[in-house]
């Protein structure tokens, strides 16, 4: 299922679909969708995946920006972000630092200006690739992008590395979803068609070194949901790893456990939704991103959930692919006869934040998550 939002229910239900067949490489640890078709995936300014409506995510992004500024001495430097979204992170790296910025993203919103911060930051509503004319930069940042690229090796070695200025301090910073956590937590809903490659800390580090980088920093971030990795071009053909590397057999066991428990986990949620429907319980889903779309298309084919909430105003009034529900904002939730009995939070990291919001609105709905409220017996362990 493609995670693009649609203008009406009919087009949403008739959206393109693709197959997912994941395979783990026992040598490098990469997990890839062998059924992926690039021609099914298109990015434009209609693609909206910003998480900045959450105060928690804003705090994370602010801390990450400050860490990068300090870690890489970003003062009067040139910074490029590949996959810059609405540009907010690149702007944060450049404001008050004297840095100049260059952002590339085909989904950069058309209503935003192409030049910002008095001309010091420029945005291009385009893919970044060979042939792009631009000055070489001191730091390339690419967050939540690499998992969307069918052939990550040439992208890293021929594109990102080629964009770096020569010198010992030039670096690349990557952020990707943490697949080890996805497997361990049996987070089925993290598997999405746009993600053609899935990374762990080890597989990402191995990939970078095979492309001629030295890994200088690696950590799990955002409650272990993300991996952040810094690397510099190596002076030798094979780069150096300075990061913890997981045991490949342990990773293979996680993958086997995920596959073995997948059907039971999905059945649990399908039956739970059916039970709520039988009891006339009104259920709302909070979160219309990857997890929400996957959950509704896999577990709620009867469309018992009619209300889908998201704090991102650019999503309001749009429809979810496959199931067609219209996305509404939190202000649509009001105490009364039609208020939800249950609110399902698709990402557990936002549970407390969303619970506070609901209580402030005078709503007493039970707040559950798709991971924390699953029976322990369906969660894989090593």
Explained architecture:
This protein has helices at residues 9-13, 55-71, 88-94, 152-160, 179-184, 201-210, 248-278, 290-299, 351-360, and strands spanning 22-24, 31-33, 78-82, 100-104, 115-116, 121-124, 139-143, 171-177, 197-198, 213-221, 226-233, 283-286, 307-309, 327-328, 342-345, 366-369. It has 382 residues and is an alpha/beta fold. It has a domain at 17-250: Rossmann fold. The strands form 3 sheets. The protein has an 8-stranded mixed beta sheet with strand order 5-6-4-3-7-8-11-10, sandwiched between helices. A 5-stranded parallel beta sheet has the order 14-13-12-15-16, sandwiched between helices. The protein has a 3-stranded antiparallel beta sheet with strand order 1-2-9, with no helix packed on it. Mean pLDDT is 92; it is low at 376-382.
Salient structural properties:
382 residues, alpha/beta, Rossmann fold, 8-stranded mixed sheet, 5-stranded parallel sheet, 27% helix, globular, disordered C terminus
Describe the main β-sheet briefly.
8 strands, mixed
Summarize model confidence as the mean pLDDT.
Answer: 92
Sketch the topology as an H/E string, one letter per element. Answer: HEEHEHEEEEHEHEHEEHEHEEEHE
The Rg value, from CA coordinates, equals 21 Å
Counting DSSP E segments of at least 2 residues, the number of strands comes to 16
What CATH architecture of one domain do you see? 3-Layer(aba) Sandwich
The separation of the N and C termini measures 30 Å
Q: Estimate percent helicity.
A: 25-40%
Oligomer state of the chains in this structure: single chain
Instruction: Give the DSSP E fraction (strand runs of 2 or more residues).
Output: 15-25%
Runs in which pLDDT lies below 50 for 5 or more consecutive residues are: 376-382
According to CATH, the homologous superfamily of one domain is Vaccinia Virus protein VP39
């Amino acid at each position: 299922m493609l995670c693009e939002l649609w203008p009406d229910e009919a087009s949403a239900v008739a959206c393109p679909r693709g197959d997912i067949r994941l395979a783990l490489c026992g040598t490098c640890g990469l997990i890839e969708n062998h059924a992926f078709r690039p021609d099914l995936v298109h990015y434009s300014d209609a693609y909206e995946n910003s998480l900045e409506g959450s105060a928690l995510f804003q705090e994370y992004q602010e801390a990450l920006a400050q860490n990068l500024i300090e870690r890489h001495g970003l003062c009067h430097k040139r910074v490029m972000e590949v996959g810059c979204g609405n540009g907010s992170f690149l702007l944060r790296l450049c404001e008050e630092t004297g840095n100049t910025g260059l952002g590339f993203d085909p989904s950069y919103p058309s209503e935003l200006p192409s030049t910002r911060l008095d001309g010091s930051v420029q945005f291009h509503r385009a893919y970044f690739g060979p042939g792009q004319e631009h000055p070489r930069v001191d730091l390339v940042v690419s967050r939540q992008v690499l998992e969307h690229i069918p052939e990550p090796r040439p992208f890293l070695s021929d594109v990102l590395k080629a964009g770096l200025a020569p010198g010992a301090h030039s670096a690349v910073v990557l952020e990707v979803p943490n697949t080890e956590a996805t497997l361990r937590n049996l987070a089925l809903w993290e598997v999405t068609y746009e993600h053609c490659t899935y990374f762990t800390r080890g597989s990402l580090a191995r990939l970078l070194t095979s492309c001629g980088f030295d890994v200088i920093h690696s950590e799990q971030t955002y409650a272990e949901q993300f991996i952040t990795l810094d690397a510099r071009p190596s002076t030798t053909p094979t780069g150096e790893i300075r990061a913890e590397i997981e045991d490949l057999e342990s990773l293979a066991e996680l993958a086997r456990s995920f596959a073995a428990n997948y059907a039971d986990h999905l059945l649990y949620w399908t039956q739970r939704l059916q039970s709520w429907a039988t009891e006339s319980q009104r259920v709302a889903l909070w979160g219309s991103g990857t997890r929400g779309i996957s959950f509704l298309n896999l577990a709620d084919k009867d469309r018992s959930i009619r209300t889908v909430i998201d704090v991102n105003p650019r999503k309001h009034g749009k429809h979810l692919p496959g199931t067609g529900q219209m996305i509404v904002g939190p202000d649509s939730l009001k105490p009364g006869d039609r208020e939800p009995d249950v609110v399902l939070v698709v990402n557990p990291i936002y549970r407390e934040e969303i619970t506070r919001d609901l209580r402030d609105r005078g709503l007493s709905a039970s707040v559950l998550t798709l991971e924390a409220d699953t029976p322990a017996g369906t969660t894989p362990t090593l």
